[in-house]
Amino acid sequence: MAPSPGPAEQSPKxxxxxxxxxxxxxxxxxxxxxxxxxxxFQACHYARVRLGLLSxxxxxxxIVLWGLTRNIxxxxxxxxxxxRLGAKPVARIKGKWPGNVDILLRMMKAFKTAYLMDVxxxxxxxxxxxxxxxxxxxxDQIITMDEEHMKYVHATGFNNFWRGRRxxxxxxxxxxxxxxxxxxxxxxxxxxxxxxxxxxxxxxxFQLFDKHSSLTLNLLSRITASxxxxxxxxxxxxxxxxxxxxxxxxxxxxxxxxxxxxxxxAKMGPKxxxxxxxxxxxxxxxxxxxxxxxxxxxxxxxxxxxELKKNRxxxxxxxxxxxxxPIVRRAIDExxxxxxxxxxxxISERTFLEHLAQSTEDVGLIRDELLSILLASRDTTACLLxxxxxxxxxxxxxxxxxxxxxxxxxxxDQEPTxxxxxxxxxxxxxxxxxxxxxxxVPLNVRESRPAPVxxxxxxxxxxxxxxxxxxxxxxxxxxxEPLYMPGATPVMYMPMLMQRNPDLWGPDADIFDPERFLDPxxxxxxxxxxxxxxxxxxxxRICLGQNxxxxxxxxxxxxxxxxxxxxxxxxEFQPEGSQPPTHWKTKQGRQAIERCWPAAALTLYVKxxxxxxxxxxxx
Length: 619
Ligand code: HEM
Ligand SMILES: *[C@@H]1O[C@H](CO)[C@@H](O)[C@H](O)[C@H]1NC(C)=O
Known about the structure:
Keywords: Heme, Iron, Membrane, Metal-binding, Monooxygenase, Oxidoreductase, Transmembrane, Transmembrane helix. GO terms for molecular function: heme binding; iron ion binding; monooxygenase activity; oxidoreductase activity, acting on paired donors, with incorporation or reduction of molecular oxygen. The chain crosses the membrane at residues 25-44, 51-68. Helix 9 (207-225) packs parallel to helix 21 (546-563) and helix 14 (363-394) packs across helix 21 (546-563). A 5-stranded mixed sheet has the order 2-3-11-8-4, sandwiched between helices. A 3-stranded mixed sheet has the order 1-10-9. The protein is globular. It has helices spanning 21-47, 55-84, 101-113, 118-127, 147-156, 165-175, 184-194, 200-203, 207-225, 232-249, 281-299, 314-341, 352-359, 363-394, 396-410, 418-422, 425-437, 495-498, 502-505, 520-528, 546-563, and strands at residues 88-89, 131-133, 142-144, 161-162, 230-231, 267-268, 273-274, 444-448, 453-455, 483-485, 490-493, 564-569, 598-601, 603-606, 611-616. Helix content is 50%, strand content 8%. It starts with 20 loop residues before the first helix and ends with a strand. The protein folds into 2 domains: 7-183 and 446-505, no CATH class; 193-440 and 538-616, CATH 1.10.630.10. It is an alpha+beta fold. The structure holds protoporphyrin IX containing FE (HEM) and 2-acetamido-2-deoxy-beta-D-glucopyranose.
């Protein structure tokens, strides 16, 4: 399917550089507040009316009436359009306060104490549907956990969506021209350039995995020898960052050599536990930027209000640029030198940076692309490793069975190969089951292009309300009519809720059970509806690094399980404020049984880190 550069690229609202968020806010303020007051002022002037003391209330009234009128006109137009398209508008949330301010406050509160995305799940349950319009501050925002609607956004209706104006505005300063922040031709160019690099020969070059796995496990052995627990999440973040930096730009960031968070002393960092020294300024800026982008997304359309004085991402952007730009320049110089000397390395020997330098000399473009792929590859992979370790810790029989499989196929020290990893059926099922319950990208956003779209009718073919005795089922009735979605409107989709939906996965949807990926009766359901398991997304923008990720994670786990055989939660070392709140125990779903605090900042992570005692095997 060839995505065309849809009409939005020429949309009149697009002239504004997405970096200029203050200007955008100013224009909105003019639109909402200034216009009616100026009109009133002029009207009084011509009519020679003096408002005197009534001036302030009159202006407030003018603003309100203006807003109401605009809303009514907008609603009428939407209803007409929906009828014309033969669809029903997506159900709107009806809060108690005007502008659904109470819903906004409920969400803000939930981000602090509730289980990840439970506030959305509750809303879907309340409204008995899988797609809603939040209408916070009268702004349309679609949220969905419906697999058919996600399929439409990603695949069948791909051309009607893009990453969109608002997302660009939030990320521009950090990801700029990178693959994650572009649509249309520019995105396609990135995709075409990056693709050969993920060919089988490249991703099965395991030397890199071996080097960094060994370094990580040596470090881990030293820690366990002194009887200490370790923040597994932090360790994996270093492992994946060092691996990715060497893979991408041939420059090992070597964060494994910097000082690690100390058990019992570590405080909460922006995501996991904080280290006392700087975890490399690059790594920290990289994480900080992700947190700011997430914060902006949570605040919604009017986030620029909170950053009028200070652009909170600028500094992080500068740090990463300062670090990456010289590396990029060097690669471009080297390419020129090699060209003059008449030598050219084959793609199999190039780093991703060298590969990019072949196609352009635009330092900014290459840097933005590197940063995007670093973001894509590093946090996601670390997240998967973290949650696999979590499950091995809370379900020791899972770790045991994985280890048996590893020892049977690889013995105690045989190095994994591309082929040998294929044989690890149980491990693959564990990875899939972990990706189902904790997809590293648990929610994400797209925007409809300026033309309105029709979301197709859902079919939940698997479990029905009556067959599901589960307390949080059913979400049915699923929509039986196509839904109308306005143009230029964001849609936030939630693979995590979809992949835990009992209507799709059965009454035990919240239970960790790798067997569901091995049992033929259950895999048949998945085969009939592949959309219900899409941790790597779907359609033309599906993850490019899926196999790379499975390989890196499996390689590491084989090496880990050859040496270690027990994994125990060391919850007493969780930094203050990162223990799961006690009120979760009384609530629905996984939160009643969760023993860590899952949170999300673009990608999923464990609040305060995942403190684990790794037990060395006495082979
Ligand atoms: C467990 C690990 C991973 C998961 C769960 C994952 C998941 C995803 C998801 C959900 C997307 C779609 C994002 C969106 O469209 O907004 C994506 C895109 C992408 N991923 Fe991954 N990913 C993983 C690992 C990797 C790795 C290791 C690499 C590279 C080495 C990578 C490279 C990419 C790239 C380049 C894209 C952008 C594709 C595009 O926009 O056309 N990913 N990934
Ligand atoms: C894991 O999921 C992937 C993607 O859906 C699938 O291709 C693979 O067969 C699954 N493997 C196992 C063992 O479940």
